[in-house]
Amino acid sequence: MKGPPPGKLFPVVEILVKPPKRTLGSSKESPVSSPSPHKRRRRANQDCDFNDLFISPTISDFEMANPTSVSSVINLTALFDDKEEVSSRTGTTVPEVFVYEFMEDGLSEDEELFIDSNESQEDQCNSDSDDAETDASEDIPIYVLSDFIIYNHGTREVVPTAELMSSHLFQSHYAASGCVSPWVDDKHAKNYSKPGSFHLGRRVRLSKIRELNVHHFDKWNKDLDGKIYIRTDFAWYILEQPSPRYLEFFQLFWIQHKLLHMIVAAAVSDRKIMLDQFIKLLPVFDEDGFITTSKMILGRGLQESDLDLDSTNAYIVTFLLELASPMQITRVPLVRSFLDRNTIPTLPRNFNSVSPAKNNKQSQKSARDKQVTVTPIVARIASTLFEGLEVVGSSEFEEVECNVAAEIERVQEHHQDPQNIVWGIQAGVIGPKTFYESVTMDGTKYGSSDVVMVNPGEDDNTMRAKNSQADASKSVNSFANHTWICYFYECEGEKMFHGQWFIHGSKTLLQEVSHSKALYLTNECEDVPVASIFRLCNLRMLADGEAEPFDDRDPQSNDFHCGYEISLLMCENEVDFIHLPNQDELDALNEIEALREEVQTISGGFTQYGINYHVNDFVYIHPEEGSLLKIGQITKIRGIPDKPKITVHRLGRYDDYVRRKRRKSSGQELTCDERRLYVSKDNDNVITITPEELDGVCFVRHLTDFNEIESWVKNEDHFYLNQVGTIKQLCTIEEDEFPICEVCDKEHARKIEHQEMLRLRNAPLRGLELFCGAGGLGTGMGLSGFVETKYAVEMDAYAAATYKDNHPDTTVYCQDTCTLLKHAIDVYEGKNPPPLLSSDGKTYCPPVPGKHEVDFIFGGPPCQSFSQANHRPKANDPRSALPSNMLSFAEVFQPSTFLLENVIGILNFPLLSQQSEHGYGLEGGIKSGVVKFIVRTLIALGYQVRYLLLQAGQYGTPQGRSRVIFLATLRGIPLPRHPPPIYAFQAAKSYSLPTGQKLQRITRSKNPDYPHGFAPLKPITVDESIGDLPPFDWVNPHAIFPATEESKAEVVEREALGIRQFHAAGAARTERTGFTRGEPYAMPPQNRYQRWLRQGMIDDDGEEGKVRGHYTKKFVSHIVEATVNVPLEPLADHRDLHWKLRPKSVQSGRAQDGRTFYGRLDGNSHFKCAMAQASPNLKQSWLLHPSQKRIISIREFARAQGFPDHYSFETEEQGNTTPVTSQIKQIGNAVPVPLALALGKELGKSLLEIWDRKEREGSPIV
């Protein structure tokens, strides 16, 4: 028996034992996907152990922040009105409700089961994956629940199983209790007991039932799953044998469920079977493999009378309506006998738009198994929006394609006749070439500034040529498929013209989603034979701020649009769509670009790639090995421009000196400073290099005053020094002993002063942050000084409280973005809606901002559907559409600047895909569909677009975390470039684009032919980020191994070193251990990163406050014992533990597949990643402190993300404890603050350009 793959949803059906006459509203929560079939198994010939079998299929995020959805809710009312009928036909009596009494020895699901799942989050923190934001609930295990009872948690009164199908399930608190045992897939069930003989496990009181899941059809294997599932927040449970007392409350639902399954199975196996044949074969079909049998549930076999119940018929018809089409059994006589019965009670289908304010879950019935019949031209449009289309009829479009191709061939042959080409007025002669103002062919005059279509030739760019022929690059516009379009601006005497090429949108990254009449001007031009001209092209230049024309997708249309001064430039890497400068600016830029690569002589030095170099300038130098740029001072320049040689005096890094002293145990009082240098007298301090080894200039000053130093180094590429010597010994140097280039220094000082003046005279961007979470992105933007986040939106009440507490001047909306947007539009349209209730259900949202009160919209939509840590992505995951909601805010508010952040998985995520056959991935669809959609939509909204792949570690985060950033500004406003890497962290990988080209990693290289990964500063390490915090260990509970004299002595020794000991073994998931009330820092800041994080910790009296949040959560004893026994060595893990302490899935005799548990961090390296869940027994988890016997604390976790120490993370207080898991989720889902700061500074450069232009030319301000 196959199980349901992820992604299939079912109708919510209400069957009432005592049916009141009422209409049910939308559910507050709704089903997510069923368990994955390939997770329902264990190895053959292996005993099934309860603690061992936490098998974890990927399931949708239950805590998703209220997406807008359309629910398919089916309400069944009054399915059986007569108790006598129910009793007589089922052979049972009407069940008498009783109160369920808890068994004293029962476990609570949230205390023991979930916390022990050492396989619950597969590869969440794999070092090769940067997408660590998938929610902890993405992977949950599957169990069998037997001897069960389902009841109302509040009253403890038992309820019929059918109640779980009601639309008010998610408003109610239903729970279950029963014996939990491992689930073994049917294919591997050698050790699983046969029906009727139960392998009972431990009795467990389950938490709130979130979903009932039935009748999933696996379209790949043509299989209908007959199991009945319920889901809690922590696991899926397959309902097996109910408790004897509960049996009567389960029987009727089981009859309906079983009969439907039998009907479908019969129809699939015999396409001609009729109802009377089915009834005769009831005993045969009743024997099909079900977890439970009729004898077990009813004490008898199923009978024809069971099939006659109106309630059963209604149930069958409801689900047959959903299943018949995808299973292709609609025409089977047996199925028709039910679907054609007009007298059967109908089950009304209500398609309601569920209010996101009331709906925490997606309640959308998947329709991807239903085929919609369309004609070819309609399919051309609908295929970019919908899936499962069935195209019928001949294609009018194909006839048009053939006609255009034939016309091109006729024109091409005619133009080979020289008599048809007549030159116009002569414009001039240059050498052997004569130039003309125009040329006439076949009576049509073509002149300078005309745009023409030409017959395509051979494209020298083979990758572009290949992409042009790809199916994804075919446009509905036939001319785009068969011609090239260029800007015709002069004729030559050799019957040639010189043209600058346009490119059709379908040949760019946009491919399938492009506007059928959009052209983009490229930076390529060449001489083209006049005879290749096909016809004139009607091109309309869009005015500034003008919206693109409606796309009627006419295949023969010759009406294209673009713009000259405000057009979009398609650059070489095909990821930038940029505002085009005017012709004078373009000519000047082309002339400058041609000279940039050449070394040119200037007064006192030389220039290359737009950078001036003089004697006594400070420069970056390419390293001989590694990726850390060296820093030196030019002392001599010779041989310019032919054979240039530059003599450089290299400067030493003060940090190298301090680290050497600390290794010698004589430099503990010294503080590292990555911006501090010294004049080196080491033997290799003078070198001779070529210009190709230089990488730009930096600025170094002799400084000693602390405030002057801090003011100076806040700027990029700024360093200071005040010492001279070797790495072994330094001494003071006076300022007059340190020569600099006075001209360059004064010019640079004037530039900084002018920029500061501009900042004082102008206001920062007024920001609206969507999906703000705890505020990592907003905090970094604010620190840049160029963004003031006026408004922020976050659904999660705790994260919203965190944001408000740390950003008191920001108006925070605790609401989902969909509901808020709808409310805002109602306000703007004058509908006077009532105040909007916050998602906490207690307060009301503040008034929405005015449409012109937002300059900058930024945020990161939930990434779980895109995340590479999501090993079971679902086709048509509703969360994949959330970027469209964020783009809708841009359409409403029309900000000048827009930024969307997400995980790297978004780059390859397809749209309109299908679930793969094995259920683990996606197949087909539009490649990089989400990226194409975002870029295409921004262009349609009037924005120029650039998207980048950034590595947070390159901007000062002590952690590897790659992020995709979409940057957009309105046409005419400078589009920010990528922030240049500052730290020599391993760059993000390059990614292939659908066009065949690469999205290259970010580089600070000035040479376009050498995109290196060098940077001027060393990466921040784990020890450098958390080494000043007070140390503590977890106490070994010795639950598995008793304490020894040696272990006791070690504890005494570590306490003598100042390492406090705290008990960490506890069952309650909300308990904390460590410095729960705050603690003074262990030492002063040891480096600039620590000093930066501690800036806000000084009170008005100049005293530094206690560090807070320096604690962990508690775990069950065996996890604690395993953690404290991992050796205090870098990268030690579970393999270094005694086999009894290892996770059971990797204990002796089992497969060692490279998974890591209990991983210890290397203090001299970086954090692997920040997760939304932190438990040492998770797969690929590297959470153990480098030198202390515990996992990293909340404060250390926050420091890994760059949050300052004064930043608090709000959550619900429970007595003297704080739920640590909520804080971890807030931190793990945040954008690293240093990355956000780097982006904010880059936005600032564009603002400074705008402000400067305003002052010089009177241009409008943003």
Characterization of the model:
The N terminus is likely disordered. The chain is globular. It is built from 29 helices and 55 strands. Helices cover 24% and strands 21% of the residues. Helix 3 (247-269) runs parallel beside helix 8 (310-327), helix 18 runs parallel beside helix 29 (1233-1257) and helix 20 (817-828) runs parallel beside helix 21 (882-893). Strands 26-27-46-47-43-42-39-40-41 form a 9-stranded mixed β-sheet, sandwiched between helices. Strands 2-5-4-3-10-9-6 form a 7-stranded mixed β-sheet. The two termini are 62 Å apart. With 1262 residues, it is of the alpha+beta class. Among the domains are: 37-247, no CATH class; 407-570, Roll (SH3 type barrels), CATH 2.30.30; 601-759, SH3 type barrels; 1022-1236, DNA Methylase, Chain A, domain 2, CATH 3.90.120. It is found in: Nucleus. GO terms for molecular function: chromatin binding; DNA (cytosine-5-)-methyltransferase activity; DNA binding. Belongs to the class I-like SAM-binding methyltransferase superfamily. C5-methyltransferase family.
Tally of separate helices: 29
SSE class = alpha+beta
Ends distance: 62 Å
Global outline: globular
| Estimated helix fraction | 10-25%
The side-by-side strand order for the widest beta sheet comes to: 26-27-46-47-43-42-39-40-41
Mean pLDDT: 75
- In terms of DSSP E residues, the strand content is 15-25%
Low-confidence residue ranges: 1-92, 114-129, 132-138, 186-199, 346-383, 385-418, 458-485, 487-493, 563-574
- Would you state the CATH class of the domain at 1022-1236? Alpha Beta
Q: Give a short account of the largest sheet.
A: 9 strands, mixed
The CATH H-level homologous superfamily of the domain at 1022-1236:
DNA Methylase, subunit A, domain 2
CATH topological fold name of the domain at 1022-1236: DNA Methylase, Chain A, domain 2
CATH architecture annotation of the domain at 1022-1236: Alpha-Beta Complex
Count of extended strands: 55
Radius of gyration: 35 Å
Biased composition (Low complexity): 26-36
Family: Belongs to the class I-like SAM-binding methyltransferase superfamily. C5-methyltransferase family.
Protein name: Cytosine-specific methyltransferase
Biased composition (Polar residues): 350-365
